[in-house]
Write a structure and sequence with these properties.
With 149 residues, the chain is α+β, with helices and mostly antiparallel strands. The protein has one domain: Beta-Lactamase (2-Layer Sandwich). It has helices spanning 2-22, 26-43, 45-52, 100-111; strands spanning 60-61, 64-65, 67-70, 75-78, 113-121, 128-138, 141-148. The protein has a five-stranded antiparallel β-sheet with strand order 4-3-7-6-5. Strand 3 (67-70) and strand 4 form a beta hairpin. The N and C termini lie far apart (35 Å).
């Protein structure tokens, strides 16, 4: 019985580590935004947006992806859902009613970069989870990457 319990504990530990590795972290999200900013500045908006929109590109990793917003809340690029490109989502609310994109824009205008917390349905777990986005303003564009806590 002790061997079974020990084996079960190892299996649970390995599964937990694999699940954690399947989710992006705060550091990874911030690093991805910084890479996106560098590409945007060096290659220009058109080439950067094409790369951000590429679901197999270097700006999509597990549950991490880059999206770009205008200062008015229009989606300019999106690594996980191209159907959102061109849509005005300024008034979009999270599952608790928070206008998180408005907050992103407000913080970007005031500070140039930051984080915003909100609640969102995780497409993997199908559960509402706490999510955080890190973002930086580059000219009149905000580059964003989020991760689940």
């Amino acid at each position: 019985m002790k061997k079974f319990v020990a084996l079960l504990m190892v299996c649970l530990l390995v599964t937990g580590v694999a699940w954690a590795a399947a989710k992006g972290t705060a550091k990874e999200a911030e690093a991805m935004v910084k890479k996106a900013v560098a590409l945007y500045k060096s290659a220009g908006q058109d080439k950067a947006f094409a790369e951000f929109n590429n679901p197999k590109g270097k700006f999509v990793d597990r549950d991490l992806y880059i999206y770009a917003l205008s200062m008015k809340g229009t989606v300019l690029a999106h690594g996980a859902n191209k159907t959102l490109i061109g849509k005005d989502l300024y008034n979009l609310k999270d599952t608790a009613g928070k206008q998180f994109l408005k907050e992103i824009i407000d913080v970007a205008k005031a500070k140039g970069k930051g984080t915003v917390d909100y609640k969102w349905t995780n497409p993997v777990s199908k559960k509402v989870e706490d999510k955080v986005v890190y973002f930086e303003k580059v000219g009149d564009v905000i580059l964003v990457c989020g991760y689940y806590k």
